[in-house]
Amino acid sequence: MQQRTKLLIGSLASSLGIIVLFTSIAFTSALDFTRHQIPNLLHDHNQHLIEMLPETPSLGQIQAMLPYHETRSDTLSVIDAEGHLLTTADNRSSQEPLAHIDSKSLLSASSGFATIDDEEYIWASTPVPDTPYTIVNTHRRPQTGLRDFMKHIGVPIGFAALISIWLSTWGAMVIASLFRRLNEQHAQLEHQARHDPLTGLPNRDALSQTIDETIARRDGDPQTLAVCMIDLQQFKEINDSLGHHCGDELLRQVARRLNAVLQAPDQAGRFYGNKFAIMLSNAGEAAIDSIAETLLGTLENAFEIDGRYLYIRGTLGVALYPQHATSAPVLLQKAEAAIFQARKNTQNAAVFQALDNKGAAERLGLINDLRNALRDGQLELHYQPKLDLRNHRLIGAEALARWVHPQHGPIPPDQFIEIAERTGLIKELTRWVLETAVQQCAHCHANGWVVKISANLSAINLHDEELVPLIASLLERHRLPARSLVVEITETAMMADPARAKAQLQKLDTLGVCISIDDFGTGYSSLGHLRQLPVDEIKIDKSFVMDMIASEDDASIVRATIGLAHDLGLEVVAEGVEDETILQQLTNMGCDIAQGYHIARPMPAAQFVAMLDEHTETKKENQAAAS
Ligand code: C2E
Ligand code: CA
Question: Domain of 308?
Answer without folding.
Answer: 204-354
